[in-house]
Queue: 3 jobs
Job 1
Amino acid sequence: MRPAAAELVDSREILPGQWLQAYHAPDLAVGSRAGQFVHVRTGDFSGMVLRRPFSLNTVDAATGTVTIHFRVFGRGTEWFTRLRPGDQIDLFGPLGRPFEVDPRSRHLLLVAGGLGIAGVRMLADEAIRAGRQVTLLFGAASAREVYPSTLLPDEVEYVVATDDGSLGHRGFVTALVPDYEAWADQAFACGPAPMLAALARLAAGRRGRLGVAKLGRKRGGGRTDPTGSPAARRKAFLQVSMEQNMGCAVGACLGCVVMTMSGTPQRVCREGPVFAAEEIAWEGGW
Amino acid sequence: MSRRRPLPAARPALAPATRILAPTRPAPAEIPAAEVDLTVDLGRGLVLPNPILVASGTFGYGVEYGEVVDVDRLGGICCKGTTLRARIGNPTPRVTETPGGMLNSIGLQNPGVDALIEKYAATWMTWRTPVLVNVAGESVHEYVEVVRRLDGVPGVAGIELNISCPNVGMGGLQFAIDAGAAGEVTAAVRRATDLPLLVKLSPNVADIRPIARAIADAGADALTAINTLSGIAVAPDRRRPLLGNVYGGLSGPAVKPVALRIVYEAAQVVKIPVIAIGGVTELADVLDFLAVGAVAVQVGTAIFADPTLPLRLVDELAIECSRRGMATYRDLIGSALPARTGRPSAKGVEYRP
Ligand SMILES: Cc1cc2nc3c(=O)[nH]c(=O)nc-3n(C[C@H](O)[C@H](O)[C@H](O)COP(=O)(O)O)c2cc1C
Ligand code: FES
């Protein structure tokens, strides 16, 4: 985990205003896990003083490359789109803590809203490599913002919802979740805060609906794990990848916190970005 | 305005006459960079190994950047603002970028002084680098109580008083904007501890000079300046201010001219050392601050983009002195101050004859 130079290998606009870039960064490609992120420096420090956090979208250990997927939103992301293959940038990572899949989980439900796909994309690769089944529910405003299926592994079952019905189901992606809640052993989500909050409500009611509560002993013997701990995530049905404006991305500035049920703010960059959904104070939080 | 008198000979070679003479004189003998004296004596036994510190709130408790930065080569570490009781801080968003800078409104989230001592003091004790605890409070009593608990704790090398906090006893006005209140809190803390006491100035005042004087008269060992400038940003939808707390503090390269001005003014009215903070991103900034009378600098916001910057500045400063044949970086201090002011203090007050 050090800032290091990485060379741009490939840069493509995969959707209007959305870019996929591959960088040669061998250390990151072998040492990172799904859910972690990189903090990237722009070339113009005197104007743009902060790095930009990006989820590690995919990693390829064989070629030593990592990809990031971002939407042009302001001067920083604009600057990245002007880079050409061969250009070097400064990547700092891997940062944050990854998704934790329970070793017993065979069916993983991934839920992504828009650009949130970048937060869960790598988990699909990891899960398939580990022999798990993956269903990805993806929601966007309209067909022109739908993540291309060609960028997903063939093994992933890909289900799309659009707000205007121009592709796939009409409506919010959260409406698709009940169809899968019995099939899924665990769910992993990234996207806009209202989507994550809705998923958290669904997840909270799931146990009752499925009758799991009657089965007696809870996973993990009912011990409560400290907020932000890997064990707390591993036991959770729903894990969410949170977003927040960042300064340092190493836990030093406390700029990036989310409020948790325990009443203490947790750092998205250090304890997160992945949290168990029940750890987050969705209502009346910040 | 009075005309500038020629600079005294002891000053670094900046006067035109010296420049004309320079080529005919033998070049100054180079001093190996490793032998340049970078130490900073702040008094009361606090000697910084070099004049490059890291600023409060940007380097946590020194442990967070552990894998990236060799903390033992820093000149000093100012830890996150610490209060008597734990604080959860402000609602989010807490940070946002601005042109050439950033706004933050962390709201002094911290575990409280007792937890701080328990969690970090033992680690700090093992470091060569002095750790200064940045202390905040809402009343004189609270400042004094926090400092009492830090007094005598091994690993705590000194106190940096953050007086840019609302004073509940004064209807929420900041201690930092009133010479009387700033002097009062400094004096009260001074009575409570023999630890080296640095007091951090706010730039959000009409005239810094009476405030700087009051703090020095109250027994502070050094001034640090500046804290952030008050500002706000607007949310993208323009329906409300962006930060959860509405107000934030501006920092980064954008504030450097303001910091230069405050250091320039403060250094001329006090006899205690002044440590500069505000927009340091490269060696030229360090040299500028030394020129207006600072004895050391703190690096803040720039760490987020480049955590290795402070250590690079230490090396570059030594090389700069070596190149110019200076045995100590202290010869760089005050070269841009008006001639009528005496050399600014580079030393803790009790050591001065
Ligand atoms: C995220 C952040 C948190 C800060 N927290 C504190 C604090 O707790 N106490 C304090 O005295 N100053 C705090 N500051 C102010 C800095 O120590 C420094 O005075 C200011 O940022 C100007 O320096 P810079 O331009 O190098 O960042 C904070 C600054 C930032 C950016
Ligand atoms: S971004 Fe600084 S603590 Fe998370």
Job 2
Amino acid sequence: MTGLRYEAPENLNAAMALLGGAEGSARVMAGGTDLIIQIDNEMIEPDLLVDIKNIKEMRSIDQVDGGYRVGAAVTGMELMEHEGFCATWPGVIEGVSLIGSIQVKGRATVGGNVCNSSPAADSPPPLIAAGATATIVGPNGSRDIPVEDIAVGPGKTSLAKGEIVVAFNFAKRPAHSGEAYQRFTPRTEMDIAVVGVGVNLTLDGDGTCIAARVCLGAVAATALLVDEAAATLIGTKVDEAALDNLAKAASAACRPIDDKRGTIEFRTDVAGVLARRVALVALERARKN
Amino acid sequence: MATILEDSKFNPDQKLKVVGTNPVKHDGPDKVTGRAKFGADMYLPGMLFGKILRSPHAHAILKSIDTSAAEALPGVNAVATRDDFPELQAGTPGGDLSRNIMAREKVLYDGHPVAAVAATSESIARRALKLIKVEYEILPHVIDPVEAMQPGAPILHSHLRTKGVEGAQDTPTNVVERLVCEMGDVEKGFAAADFIVEGEYDSKPMHQSYIEPQGCVASASQDGQIELYCCTQGIHVFRDRIGEILKIDSAKIRVSQSEMGGGFGGKTSPYAEPVAAVLSRKSARPVKIVLTRNEVFRCTGPVSATKSKIKMGCTKDGKITAAQADLVFQTGAFTGSMFFNGPWAMFTRYALDNIHTVACEVVSNRPKVNAFRAPCVPQIVFGVEALVSEMANKVGMDQIDFRLKNAAKEGDTTVFGQTFERIGFVETLEAAKQTDHYKSKLPEGWGRGVSTGFWFNRDGDTTGSLTITPGGSVTIMVGTSDVAGSRISLSMMAAEELGVPVEKVRAILSDTAMMGNNRVTAGSRTTYSAGMVIVDSARQAIAEMCRRAAEIWGVPVEGVEFVDGAVHPSSSNVGEFEPMSIAEIAAKTSVSHGAISGHTEMNVTGAGPGFGVHLVDCEVDRGTGRVDIKRYTVIEDAGKAIHPLQVEGQYQGGAIQGVGWALNEEYIYGEDGRLQNPGFLDYRIPVASDVPMVDTVIVEVPNPRHPYGLRGVGEVPVTPTLGAVGNAIGDAIGIRPTSLPMSPPKILKLLKDAGLNTN
Ligand SMILES: Cc1cc2nc3c(=O)[nH]c(=O)nc-3n(C[C@H](O)[C@H](O)[C@H](O)COP(=O)(O)OP(=O)(O)OC[C@H]3O[C@@H](n4cnc5c(N)ncnc54)[C@H](O)[C@@H]3O)c2cc1C
């Protein structure tokens, strides 16, 4: 590592210009809680760091069309202290609140969590279950894509060179809908998900499930949006039989690896158990909503 | 110097003012405000930064090392390899240590040092490491100790033959030693048993996980003196071992100790310190090396992995008649596990007539193990206490009553030949029975485990001194390390003796030049042994103050006595004199015979064995196999708690380290023989929310050999933990786990195989 250049532009255009004009390798830095560790471990050796924390539009949480727009550089703690967002998207908050400690979340951002593309990251499953989209700005303009389209493999995203995730968009929450996220870790905290499950479901007036999204983390190369699992709930009252089917579908969707964090068998079993538990929490919330 | 204390015994009638209270630690404020200086906090002018290149291979011949490109890099001042270390004979203590610190013929584990660089910055040093070309010839490796014992296993050391086996051995082996311990006749014992229970158990290495990685600065002068500043559990041992492997007269090495951010046995032997010394000699500049966490995991001592096969028998009325065991201890690439502790301590809580154990120490391609609180004992007690609980259940006796029925007492002889003096195991078991915890009803679905533990407690060579300042304050100095608050406990004992408030006493840790030799601060020996020398030094100072006062009063020394911090005439017959306080006597030293001090060196004996009982309640998630520790109580005999909060801290810390080892901590190796989890993310020590508040009960059955009755308390608190957690899980799910760690995948598998898993 020789002569690492650090810049902290105050607007998106300046950030784009820095990223576009960089010689050698450039990296966006938000909280740095993944990036600095990777630099320290010599996993990456960037020549330029573009800190995005001074860009105002990336730091705000706004209500838009009855939904929310959350700047990609909003920190975990800022989001967790936003009462309106917390009340509306408790499952997303469950994911965010599991990231590290209070100190880590004082810096860590949702944008960084998604763009770091760890299969075990905690906010992508609830974001994906919530149907959130990301606004991406780059040399070729701006586009919105579903969050599930960002990560393409461990440490790899679909972002083109010079692109930045600017914000995440959450549509207005329908009535009788609820979502939740839980992960399994051997420790109570400061650990990495062995399995994570986000479930978002919507009921009709009678309590029949009319829409569902189920997303599994840490059981494949990226977070998995599992339509087959969602299908087990839709049209049911989310009763025992439906939950059994959900557990089976969640286990069946897993494509995990055997590694130091868990065996294939263990991850597959726990994905089913957790899917069921999370669906029950989401159901409870949907009924109150 | 002859010591006053040699046969000073515990006095049950003494009235204590300081001992038994909880003053603020004198080193505490610096620690909580960040002023305290740890190993990594030393900076010297002109200092260079050292980095070590480590083998990525588990086993390979070190064919060649080309350092020329690294040496040519601007900013690099020295590069060291095996050629910079004297060649000592392989298989000797020095030869092994030297080869562990810098690989010579072969690399023997992932992380084994092969070269080192000193440069003007850390990043230049790191870059220089990448320029060193090492040619390896990769050999097959072996990680598991049982596999390492099999014929045809890759051999680590061609010189190795098994100690303790009769007859000539033609071929090299990985079995370092085979040790048989026996007593009575086990065949007869089993014949007399109504119930026989047996099991096979295994454990993985865990790491001491001190939060402070090893850090040191070495500074070699042109005339061959070496000053070394480091975090260590034994300044003298570091000096002597570094002298031995570098062939330097130890008088030329001066080792100073930093504050210690945890050691737990792992800082009893050197790693990077001799490398820093060599680099400093080569560069003629001070050199600092601070290990990274990755290096700490890959190259410093974890504990032994073990396999054990244990069999025990008892009569219908609950008397244990025989105990037998086959034990295997993995020691890493070099011998030194202290595996004998296992067979010596495993059954020692119980008064047994018939024991037969065979224990083997085995090398394999892993970092050399190092001491950890009660080395080689907790992982064996894990199995023993499973069987003890099973026997209690078979007999139909209460778990504690069963253990009481078999408890070791004064006069019982152990398998290692010691006959116990007064010990407190019975009192400890009785105290456990009286706890709210044991009396409480177990909530539905939880399990409760009981286990007991024992540690010998150590003593040995110790030095200390005590000086009275002209103002009447007290400075004490010891050659031991302070790994867990010994300075405050020693200050309290000095204050008690001298009748002064503890705030008037300050304790200092010496360097190697200031004090005579000390054994390492380990084995729960320090507060006991250093306490003995400080009490003795204080009594010398008191005797001297009596002489001074008698001289000032013009009376015979027999006519005065020291009471409550002052010299008094012992009766009115001696004369009417106002008592002279320490401060008054000290104020006159320059007109009498100079400063007043005491100074003691002793080969301390009489450490009292320690016993403990752990009670654990747990709940098991039957969908995920995760174990939640709900309630934990440690009951242990401290002899006398000098500073009860510190004792409680030892009990709680031991339990928590044990919970980590029981549930999650393990070294995970890949097929390639590389360690997969050298960091705290995947090597899971417990975090605060993983454990409940650990309740403690301090039992005090005084050690008759210590003036205040104390026993060591550092190791006993880990010994029962694995057994207690295992028994609690067994009680909760109906299946006693036999393999450590009892991690969620393993517990879920046990549940599934028995059809007991749920959502
Ligand atoms: C002690 C500790 C515990 C942790 N525990 C958890 C945990 O439990 N769960 C979990 O999921 N994570 C955990 N993490 C990982 C990390 O904190 C999170 O992934 C965090 O959300 C990363 O956010 P950041 O802002 O710090 O990202 P950074 O480190 O700044 O960036 C991460 C990556 O994303 C890129 N990036 C960042 N922002 C953008 C953007 N807006 N557009 C494009 N690219 C961008 C960066 O270039 C980089 O490649 C932990 C980390 C630590 C140090």
Job 3
Amino acid sequence: MTRHIITVTVNGTLYTREMDARKLLSDFIREDLGLTGTHLGCEHGQCGTCTILFNGVSMKSCLLLATQADGAKIMTVEGLAKDGVLHPLQESFWEHHGLQCGFCTPGMLMNALYFLTVNPRPTDLEIRRGIAGNLCRCTGYVNIVKAIKAAAEKMAQNKGA
Amino acid sequence: MKPAPFDYYAPSTLEEVLALLGQHGDEAKLLAGGQSLMPLINMRLARPAVLVDINRLPGLDYIREDDGMIAIGALTRHASVASSNVLKKSCPMLPHAAQFVGDLQVRNRGTFGGSIAHADPASEFCAVVYTLGGEIVARHAGGSRVIPVEEFFEAPLTTALTPREIATEVRVARIKGAAWSFRGIAPRFGDFVLAGVGIALDFDGEGRCGACRVGMFGVGPTPLRAYKAEQSCVGNRLDEKLIVELAELAATEADPSSDVHASAGYRRELLRWLVGWNLRNASRKHQEEMK
Ligand SMILES: Cc1cc2nc3c(=O)[nH]c(=O)nc-3n(C[C@H](O)[C@H](O)[C@H](O)COP(=O)(O)OP(=O)(O)OC[C@H]3O[C@@H](n4cnc5c(N)ncnc54)[C@H](O)[C@@H]3O)c2cc1C
Ligand code: FES
Ligand code: FES
């Protein structure tokens, strides 16, 4: 099996690491970088809990190889809060009870973050379709939809201010 | 849930890709968006010895009008198909279908070429290209060839491509009239369909059907056309009686199978309903256009 050296920016920090070709990006993030906020549910693209931003776009990290991230900018859930201040999405999930066990939350947040960049003022239906790739076994989604809608409003206000 | 070992290459030229495929043959697999291949590799249902990643190839991400057809580069992501203005104008069935392919993350990464090459019998993109007509441009170390879509899909997940070939472009026919319709039925929004239908219709000045294409997917080993229904349509007015007849005919032309998601009989029933729904929808669109 080939081995590879990659240089990748994760949450603003540059890392250079060596790995086997078969290392999944999700495992690289969790095991090699110790960033365990990115969760693994199914490891075959079904549950969305491993969602990260890859060059600003939401993708499932269990369907990417770590070697494919060479030169890329990655953002994980650990990159959301700044200096101890929660991101408006995180605040809204808190305020609207958008989580129970929290297992799906990192992927939900990262996909919602991307979704709001392409659709900053979504309807409830658009939100539901936007998060169709993220399974939640606890909440029934209602409060997640509310939280994302509230976050959209907050983020629009912050932008206006 | 971890891949078996493999060698990995990420060439930046087509020549290198073709050389690697030439060297490793069916030991090698091309890796495009990975949204179908990586699940198989993670579950070790696929164990390629060599992965040739094509994501670093330049110049294969485009959608343009070309000689009366729309040419789509193999590395065009589903999300770009969904939002393309060229397609919305000249082939709106494709962006419409794109919204039903997987979910946001899958559409951000999956590629058009990968979807066509993967040849899932329930694939929306395979269905649209098959319904409207088109061709696949394939390259190998010795040259290239153009494969008509009618000869491309051979069996579930099996195409006319050889292990030494890469699809570089897919061309699909434009939709001329406004009368088209596309709908599938899936257990949940974004899942693979249990059955789906795409229809493109021309009408003459008297409101009679001209050329007609009825594509079906999820109801056979490959996408299918309902040729008998298409022929019975031509020259006739699309009234309720004819619609019911055409739906019956199409159902006899489908070849559904049973699996954990649905029985063959249920799929056929869905198909019958979908042909009717899509014909009515296409006809309604045409009438609105005429107003
Ligand atoms: C959760 C989930 C839901 C999905 N739902 C749907 C759905 O509803 N409808 C649907 O149609 N699809 C669905 N998909 C599949 C998705 O559309 C894939 O993106 C697509 O099937 C394959 O494209 P890819 O670029 O990801 O290809 P890969 O996964 O990289 O490759 C797939 C196959 O094609 C070959 N290949 C790739 N590119 C080329 C090329 N240029 N030339 C020759 N061979 C090539 C590969 O070697 C491999 O065998 C879903 C996937 C997931 C994970
Ligand atoms: S762990 Fe990646 S989608 Fe489930
Ligand atoms: S909060 Fe438990 S899975 Fe979503």
